[in-house]
Amino acid sequence: MTTAPTDDLAALLAPLHASLTCKSLKAPNRFCMAPMSRYFAPGGILSDEGAEYYRRRAAAGVGTIITEGTGVAIDHTVAADTVPIFAGDEPLAAWKGAIDAVHAEGGMFVPQLWHVGGCIDFNFPDSPHAELVSPSGFAGPDVPGGRAMTESDIADTAAAFAESARAAKDIGCDAIELHGAHGYIFDQFFWDRTNLRDDRYGGPDIADRATFAAEVVAACREAVGEDFAIIMRVSQWKTYDYDVKLARDPDEMHRWLDPMVRAGVDIFHASQRRFWEPEYEGDPKNLGGWIKEVTGKPVITVGSIGMDRDLMQDFVEGISSPMLGRLEDLVAMFERGEFDLVALGRVLLADPNWLEKVEQRRIDELTPYDRATALKQYEHG
Ligand SMILES: Cc1cc2nc3c(=O)[nH]c(=O)nc-3n(C[C@H](O)[C@H](O)[C@H](O)COP(=O)(O)O)c2cc1C
Questions:
Q1: Whose CA is nearest to atom 30 of ligand 1?
Q2: Which residues contact 269 (CB under 8 A, 6 or more apart)?
Q3: 69 - beta bridge partners?
Q4: How many angstroms is it from 35 CA to the middle of ligand 1?
Q5: If you count Cβ atoms within 10 Å of the first and of the last residue's Cβ in the chain, which end, N or C, has fewer?
Q6: Is the distance from CB of 305 to CB of 271 less than 8 angstroms?
Q7: How far apart are CA 14 and CA 358, in angstroms?
């Protein structure tokens, strides 16, 4: 089931152990835990087990922990009542426990700030939630979702992101990540199928549709100051369309991302289902490689590292098995300067010790991932 490219996996991955500093983020190595929703925060409060779950990944050598998506300081931020919130005394006290635990292991702690826009929760569609809002009343193409936002909704939402960003800095996080990917609020503004506005937040050019994101980034920047790192996660794919390309060529990619760069993004997290896939025909660079080239910013790459199937195939086919055959490609891409950090998703959800096991070539001990894993409370360590 598992093919390993070389006998000495520790030597292969050694370049990824170089540290990286970007403002407040002082990553001890290039490995990050990808953001993964777990839905075990009743009332929006991360449990002690949740803090321990993150601590174990840091203890096993993952340099930067990016948390599951966590709501910001406004009632319409998420659509399930078991998603943790990054606002209010009790939720922040719980997060502080996780931050301290990860820091004690030498890891960096980065909350992923999430607003779902007009999307109900796909995992818990019946969960109670506040009235949702979205750019034009759509969650997907011709899929109604949320009330169309007024300009004052937009201002309040930007202020809510800024309040949670400031809280993150105040309680000791090392950076924040804004969830601009996968069809949620930022993406609903980016995409012309869900943003039908005729004010300054909409328009035929993707640069116009990036105005909301740029304003949120600017509000966060003002809240956290110049020296605190802001990461923006983006993707081409959305839950409503895996094949769509927001940016059809590098020029359009520049028009999409440049407003966010000018507003203060420090790092882009390029969410892709399979990291080895070229973004545009005729050039091997993946999404992250292109983002790095057009923005000049450091990037995080991600997508099926250590797994034989991608995230979406799991939904259909049920199980992904360990597969190490592409690690050489990953390291070669790193050595060509095509990414700066790499996020590991399902391999770390299934097994906190994935990295150690790989580097020690304990291949028979690697754990497959199946969809049900994510809904079992921290059973896998
Ligand atoms: C259970 C689960 C929950 C996820 N939740 C989030 C999330 O909250 N925010 C996000 O940006 N991506 C989320 N993702 C996507 C992952 O961050 C990652 O991009 C994806 O799993 C691909 O990486 P992998 O192939 O290494 O798993 C989730 C993925 C899984 C498997």
A1: 36
A2: 66, 177, 181, 231, 232, 233, 234, 299, 300, 302, 343
A3: 112
A4: 6
A5: N
A6: no
A7: 12
